[in-house]
Specification:
The chain is α+β, with helices and mostly antiparallel strands. 31% of the residues lie in helices and 44% in strands. It has one domain: Alpha-Beta Plaits.
Length: 108
């Protein structure tokens, strides 16, 4: 199993219930692909560096998980189909970063 970190940016106009539903779907995608979620953080609403789909802000979610690399393609396909996710990025890491991250510390 490889270590991965996933950052998803959700549409800023989603309600709390919709944000929670997208988060649960992301976890479901990972678990159904044989992955194991290690930890997660909600970074909240942040300014984007440039407008994406006419939005200047986005709601950020950070997830650390372990999965076989060949299964990551299925997760990316599922995330691409979710219309509430405007961007996502999965990165393979040697070791998971110790939480809380700098982004979560800035939020407080």
């Amino acid at each position: 199993m490889n270590h991965f970190e996933l950052v998803c940016i959700l549409k800023p106009d989603l309600g709390k219930q919709s944000q929670d539903q997208v988060e649960e779907n992301m976890k479901k995608y990972i678990n159904e692909s044989g992955g194991k979620i290690v930890d997660q953080e909600i970074w909240g609403l942040k300014n984007l560096a440039y407008p994406i789909k006419k939005s200047n802000k986005g709601y950020y979610i950070f997830i650390q998980f372990d999965i076989d690399a060949k299964e990551l393609l299925n997760i990316n396909k599922s995330l691409n189909l979710n219309e509430n996710i405007i961007r996502h990025l999965s990165v393979k890491v040697e070791n998971h970063e110790k939480l809380p991250t700098m982004m979560a510390q800035q939020k407080n």
